[in-house]
Each structure stands twice: as structure tokens, then as C-alpha cells.
Amino acid sequence: MSLSPNEGPSTGGTMVTLTGTNLGDVTAVRFGGTGTALTIVSATQITATAPTGSAGAVQVTVTSPGGTSAGLTYTRTALPGI
């Protein structure tokens, strides 16, 4: 499985595309411990919106009736200070 993009702002809102196999029955996507909204595009692609969180790397996992995937790294970047 892969995800794109693999980074975004810590304020969240980035639409992330996950590509792989057997994604048609995914029931949850989590960024670290935080679940988020997802859309099943096809059996090989889903989209999810990255939630707000602290800057740094988190593991993105997908859950289906078959279990939970290994994590993929997504990095939340801090916005520049004013």
C-alpha cells in the first residue's frame, strides 16, 4: 500500500490517497490514534482527510474485516510562525 502525499500541515485538511489492493471493504483510516473520514474510490484506492495533530510523523493504518494494515508514515509539518 502507498499514500500520497505523505506529508501535510499540522492543521489537517490534506486529502490523502491510499493505493493498494482489497481496499473496497475498508471500515476505518487512522492517523496515529485519530480516525478520520474516508471515501472508497475503488477496490484499489481510497481517500481520507488528514486530521489536525501535533507536528511530526504518525503511522497511517487502514482497517477492514481482515484486520489492520501495517502503518505508513505521514508527517505533519508545523506552519511557520508569524
If you had to describe this structure to a student in words, what would you say it looks like?
The chain is mostly beta strands and 82 residues long. Helix content is 0%, strand content 55%. The protein has strands spanning 2-4, 7-9, 15-19, 28-31, 34-36, 38-42, 45-49, 56-64, 67-68, 72-77. The strands form 2 sheets. Strands 2, 4, 5, 8, 9 and 10 form a 6-stranded mixed beta sheet that branches. A hairpin with a 2-residue loop joins strand 8 and strand 9. The radius of gyration is 12 Å and the shape is elongated. It starts with a strand and ends in a 5-residue tail after the last strand. The mean pLDDT is 94.
Features:
four-stranded antiparallel beta sheet, 82 residues, elongated
- Give the low-pLDDT segments: none
SS summary, helix count: 0
Tell me the radius of gyration. Answer: 12 Å
Shape: elongated
Main pleated sheet: 6 strands, mixed
Structural class: mainly beta
Please estimate the helix content: under 10%
What is the string of SSEs from the N terminus onward?
Answer: EEEEEEEEEE
Number of strands: 10
What is the strand content?
over 45%
Name the average pLDDT. Answer: 94
First-last Cα distance: 37 Å
